[in-house]
Amino acid sequence: MLSNLGEDKSIYLQISEMIEDEILRDIIKEEEQVPSTTELSKFYKINPATAGKGINLLVDKGIIYKKRGIGMFVQAGAKEQIMEARKTSFKETYLKKIISEAKLIGITKEDLKKLIDETSEV
Fold first, then answer.
1. Where are the transmembrane segments (predicted)?
2. What is the full DSSP assignment across the chain?
């Protein structure tokens, strides 16, 4: 999965997003343990420091926390926190560009809604 996304994202960011994705899909539930940096580094054949950087990013965001001597766990409320952050990012990254382009080429709000409906049916 890593580096095959066609994106120029650092591996540690991909690790972080992969864990967030697993939380959103309920593969890893709140208060459950996440894979260790050793497990991640072996599975993805990456440097443990790189895996650790991805994990630490989630710690800094308050998504996961450390239980001393046991491992890293998903924080209660993490799924909702991730969803809200991703909704904001989606709006800033995609929707504003789409709306700007739509206005430029004369697509109305109603036309855009219709296009979304037609596309989501595919």
1. none
2. -TT-SSS---HHHHHHHHHHHHHHTTSS-TTSBPPPHHHHHHHHT--HHHHHHHHHHHHHHTSEEEETTTEEEEPTTHHHHHHHHHHHHHIIIIIHHHHHHHHHTT--HHHHHHHHHHHHT-
In degrees and rounded to multiples of 5, residue 33 shows phi and psi of -75, 140
Which among 11, 10, 34 is positioned nearest to 82, based on CA atoms? Answer: 34
What does the block give as tokens for 25?
């899909």
Per-residue model confidence as pLDDT tens for the chain (122 residues): 555 544 678 999 999 999 999 999 999 999 999 999 999 999 999 999 999 999 999 999 999 999 999 999 999 999 999 999 999 999 999 999 999 999 999 999 999 999 999 998 75
Per domain, the residue ranges of the chain are: 11-76, 79-120
Class of domain 11-76: mainly alpha
